[in-house]
Design goal:
By secondary structure, the protein is an alpha+beta fold. It is 29% helix and 34% strand. β8 and β9 form a beta hairpin.
């Protein structure tokens, strides 16, 4: 993985990640309108919800210097999904969440595993957090496999935004590489 001087961009073997900006509103709307992409993320969202989602995540970048990245498959220019490292309140506890979402045409190619590994590296090496969480819909077995491949383990089910989610967690020792 290659990371820019700050966390505005990073690259993996097959992906290029760029910091979320106002210019990404059409991409966010397109993602949030896609039934496949949103299947396990609470369903399709309208444009007003997408605009608020963008604003909320831009504020996160301003406050913390990390957040959501828009993903492109190298060397193509088309947006194929998003990656996430952000604060998430889990039952009153502030955690750092890792996540991703891809358009269905890009499922099953190992891209989720690749970008999750990159985000874990950023969380540990650049953000220096002691651990990470992820939430998935209980029925989203494919995402659960991605998390397990990246060393996260099932912790428990939690309520978040009025829905039941499966919480996965990874803590790392200071001397154990990711």
């Amino acid at each position: 993985m290659t990371v820019g001087a700050n966390l505005d961009a990073f690259w993996t073997e097959r992906l290029r990640a760029e910091r979320l900006t106002d210019a990404h509103l059409p991409d966010v709307i397109r993602m949030n309108r896609d039934e496949g992409l949103m299947t396990h993320l609470g369903g399709v969202k309208d444009d007003a919800w997408s605009a608020e989602y963008l604003a909320r995540n831009l504020r996160h970048w301003e406050l913390y210097g990390f957040g959501i990245w828009i993903l492109r498959e190298q060397p193509r220019a088309e947006v194929i999904g998003r990656a996430v490292l952000r604060h998430l309140l889990v039952e009153g506890v502030d955690e750092i969440e890792v996540g991703y979402a891809f358009f269905p045409a890009f499922w099953g190619r190992g891209l989720a595993t690749e970008v999750t590994a990159a985000c874990l590296g950023l969380a540990r090496e650049r953000l220096r957090v002691p651990g990470i969480v992820a939430i998935t819909a209980p029925a989203n077995v494919a995402s659960q496999r991605v998390l397990i491949k990246n060393g996260l383990t099932y912790d428990r089910d939690v309520m978040h935004e009025d829905s039941l989610w499966s919480l996965f967690r990874r803590r790392w020792a200071a001397d154990v590489p990711i």
